[in-house]
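Section 4.2 – Deliverable D4.2 (structural model, holo form)

The reporting period included a commitment to supply a predicted holo structure for the target in complex with 2-acetamido-2-deoxy-beta-D-glucopyranose. Inputs used:
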Amino acid sequence: MLNCHCFIDMIVAIGKILLIWITSAIIALVVILPIALIYWRREFAKRREKCDKNKNKIVIGFFHPYCNAGGGGERVLWSAIQAIQKKYSNVRIVVYTGDLEADPEAILNHVRRIYNIELNPIEFIYLHKRKWVEADMYPRFTLLAQSMGSMWLGFEALQALQPDIFIDTMGYAFTYPLFKYIGGCEVGSYTHYPTISTDMLKHVYRRIISHNNHRIIARNPFLSAAKITYYKLFALVYGWMGRCADIVMVNSSWTEDHINSIWKCPLKTFRVYPPCDIERLVDLPLLHDEDKGDLIRIVSVAQFRPEKNHPLMLRAMFELREILKNESLWNRIRLILIGSCRHDEDKRRVKDMEDLTKHLSLEKNVEFKLNIPYNELIRELQIGTIGLHAMWNEHFGISIVEGMAAGLIMVANNSGGPRADIIETQPTSRTGFLATDDREYAEIIANIIHMSADQRSTIKHAARASVSRFSGEQFEEEFLRATEPFFRNAKQ
Ligand SMILES: *[C@@H]1O[C@H](CO)[C@@H](O)[C@H](O)[C@H]1NC(C)=O
Ligand SMILES: *[C@@H]1O[C@H](CO)[C@@H](O)[C@H](O)[C@H]1NC(C)=O
Ligand SMILES: *[C@@H]1O[C@H](CO)[C@@H](O)[C@H](O)[C@H]1NC(C)=O
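Output (structure tokens):
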């Protein structure tokens, strides 16, 4: 009897606590949040009015918390700033960064050294809350928690300085409503990679184990269903956030497709390819066959990772030998596998590839070139005839662009970025070839080898001309065209 009483009391107590929690959450949501929003909105409007009176420059804030990372995303940031500085003189440019250990001088030196980009003076605003966007802070619900963290970080940025134009170059979509509705800014976005993509949803659907899908979840249908709901809700909210941007730029067709399917604002979405560093390659003289020596070189530049699919290239070589049916010709053919080999795992994979080479009796026709210096890499691209790329569904394929710039005839997998963005296969304007399996790769290679020098030259020239759309100049032009409305609005 007593036990039973206790039990009921306990349930009542738990019920009460839950009720209090839920009520306070609802109160927070419907009362405190709107009040806070209205308060901050007013506050920032006042601030803006105050500083508008004694200001003659347009303030542009670039949100890039990892601006000193030295990758491809950072090249976009610095090239964008350079483009704006070239075109507009009445601007004040500010970069929000979380790289507390690097002072402005050090960052700008880094930019000069790595990208060879020289900037007029810019300012940096250092953010101390960057740890809130780091994935290892959150073992569960990483996506949502990171996005909330980015709002928190964005709020720190907004409080430190309220720009006229806010441009996010790292894809933190959850900061857009903050800057747009509270800060009253024009908001631009440059997205390299959607935070959530339909590919991730597919993995959960098919219950595949992957980096975003834990084994326990993949095995359990109920957890999988819960996760799908979570992802769908997240995608919905991500879409609302993304649509707050006034102008959206994406780095490739792949990203464009995903952003269009989640943000659903194609009319203000523009594809602006990032600047690739191909000037030096495009300036190389194209060698004639006689200058390349007696060998016909097929070059692959790819890290030794499974998705790069080196075994496919080796099997294609095996097929090629059968197709050519000419030993003296075959003896002149070399497959050059260039890649970096950094740790034991890489070494093991290279060893596997060497074993496969022996297994297919190709060791006389395959060379491995590991960790070669840049000059030697350029030399290899220059004396090569054909370039190989075998990765399936690569989002872009910068190595293909570089090969085309250097004068290789590229053969790439018929999927992803290579098909959508890079290689044109219409016979009259052909810039390369797309293949599906080892046999097709081999047939295409044989076909290229048997072409006349003139035919090859036509393709090489077309390919080189076509990659200019990935150049720094082209990026500048497209970026300025997309962001032009901001400056038109700000001047009035
Ligand atoms: C776009 O960004 C993603 C993520 O960084 C990258 O994988 C892809 O290669 C980029 N595309 C281009 C065209 O550089
Ligand atoms: C084999 O290829 C060589 C060129 O390397 C060529 O001179 C020769 O005529 C070819 N032989 C046959 C049977 O096609
Ligand atoms: C190459 O692309 C095709 C078409 O997308 C795909 O079916 C095939 O599996 C890919 N091949 C390899 C070796 O990845």
